[in-house]
Records
---
Amino acid sequence: MTLDQSQQYLLKALNAFDKRVVVVSPDFELLAVAGQDPKVQSEDMVGCKCYEAIYGRGEPCKVCPAKQVINTKAATIRTRAYWPEKDQEGCLYAFPIPPEGEVEAIAVFHFDASIITGIETEMRRSHAFLQNLIRNASDPVIAADMTGRVIIFNEAAAEATGYSVDEALSSLNIRQFYLNDGAYKVMEDMRSDQHGGAGKLKKYRITAKGKDGTEIPISLYASIIYEGELEVASIGFFHDLREEIHMQQKLEKTQAQLLQSEKMASLGKLAAGVAHQLNNPLGSITLYSKLILEEYDLDNGLKEDVQLILRDAERCRDTVRELLEFARQKRQSMKPLEIGKAVERCLTLIENQSLFQNIEVNQEVEEDLPWVFGDGQQLNHVFMNILINAAQAMEGKGTINISIREAETKDRLVVNISDTGPGIDTDHLKHIFEPFFTTKEEGQGTGLGLSVVYNIIEYHGGTISACSEIGQGTMFTIELPITRNHQKGEQDDERA
């Protein structure tokens, strides 16, 4: 096909176009016309001014697209152009010839307004869908321009941060969303290629800040938005990690409790074997020491030596008894009982002891608490041990606070026992439930008390933990599963 033939086909194509196609010079002279519009089919129009030949005007139109192309040297579109001869609206698309450099002519195409209307309708539909997608995203979405002004802020972001959507869009700067210079660090790392590629962040951990100053650990996915090579905005999708971190901490605590339980079970078996092995020789030492004291006339020095043997043997016997108590895993006399009354019984037993004469005991017990299923004697041992330890730590002077409440989960009772003693340092605190660990002076304790307490609470399906600060006292927290059916327990108590 020759060049002339190619140009002929191109001309035929333009003439077959069902609307108007014109080419005008920079001074608005018609250079060429084409299309099926009867108004432009006359070759006599060539050389005339476009505004005179087509619109019957004496001067260029105020919103002439050709004029805009001359000024900008770039393509433009004018929507809703009016065609008087057809009493209808259309659209004009104009572009410079050549596309770059000095404008030699301007080509102008006429389209039906319905085409643009359809495009606009589709764009509005797409925009509405995108807005709805962002607004209803389960994770927070925030976008900001390069000045930091927030331009997108969805409902999930509002829920996580405490800002309302309107408040964020009207007054929030993205710098307020991060701690310290966090916003600058995010942009710096986003421009590097170390966190998912240049202009992107993937699984980027940083701490955000809520409206009330709450620190919010987040995992951020973000990217820079470009127009050409120019940065115009940034957008981030982030996941609030607070619940995940809480669950991780809870899992770690549960794992630690499981390890502790396994360790205690192993030590319990060992303790039981040791205790039984020691019982017989200790019984013999005690028996023969008493016989020597009763049947022989000993001088004072020798008598004191035998009494020392007897005292130490009795101390060993007490240790063996605690070992057996520690090793015992059998639940006895399990029935529904009121924790409040169990604590009250313990306080009645110790209130007249000299150790508690200068100690104030405060109780805060919720009304109508559910009962727990347990062994009253064993739980008495638990509370007694903790209360006596608290009194000894305070050296007989201070305050013990006891609170009993139902957990928020409604499946457990929570007992808090705190004192105003010297507290326990962190290194010691993590060992207090281990057998034979004690902070008391030699001869004042075996270190088995809290390990027995731990076992008892574990046998009851509960948990026990302690928190303490030096100079601020110590608090033990006991959680026990509740039982809703305690009628049988009440009947048992009445028969007893």
---
Amino acid sequence: MPDDRPRPRHGAGKPRKGPGQRPSAKSGPGGRGRKPAGDRAGRSTGGRGRGGSGGRKRPPTGRPTRTRSDDQPRRSPRPEPRTAAERRAAEVRATRGPRKPVDASVERERIEQRETERWVDEGSIRAEAQAATARASSARPRRETPVDPEVLAELQVAAADPRRAERLAERLTSAAAALDRERFDDARRMVAPVVRELPSLAAAHEINGLANYRMGRWREAAAALDEARHLHLDPALLPVLADCYRGMKRWTAVDALWREIRELSPSHEVMAEARIVVAGAHADRGELKQAIALMQPAQKAPKKVRDYHLRQWYVLADLLDRAGDTMGATRWFREVVAHDADFADARERLRALGR
């Protein structure tokens, strides 16, 4: 079961393969067939022609002779360059020195010493809680302009100077668009100047917090979201903040936020997301009974089944399965599959329970 913590997308670079070695071209195009001067037969003292019976070979005149074994294949000479690109390539080959040979044992040792990244499965509760908070933060419908006009108006007032306001508004809009496209690192980088120059703008802290949250940077996300909620309270952000505290194992802060959310009486969806996160925090501490009790309101039959109902039922089924209640787990996994056969891994969980 995959880990739900956001993984760095993006860019885990793969090692690039270097280009293959090319043979050096010492003799230039067409020069392979020439023999060195040391191999030419000398003239005899008696004035005979070359190759006569009395002729002697002169000693080498400085250039070493090349020897080729009979079993070494002869390579065909490089054709004469015809185009300007081929002539340029020939010039580069003639001036470039030979590449250093690669030691196979050294390369093998480097490969063996590489550290591979391992992902730890923390269970389906964690996956559903993270997905729940992500949906809660994007529960509002998307607009063509990612930033609310009221926020832009607030930015213009805070910036004072019109040119500065225009520049920061463009930054904020680009950061919000990057967040929607799940380019979290870009969003964090783009919104940083806005946070620095306009620290009283809640929307900038919100984008910064959500981007850090999706990257698994719990401490930075919690600081930014906490600042945003003190500047402008948005109940939809509270489940995300609670999940950040859960990631840092700050259980007291999670419980305090849960009390605050209940006092606010937010929408049913935000309440469901918060319930999933807090139940997951109880499960992390081994308190399965408290987690199951917290999910009891999810058992009420809704007039219309929505996506957040399915998420609550899945979490309840998982908790019951972990507590050893296979009958209860089967019931709620079946409810999920009956409304969405492809929801998460509900069908696989049913098969694992033998149902």
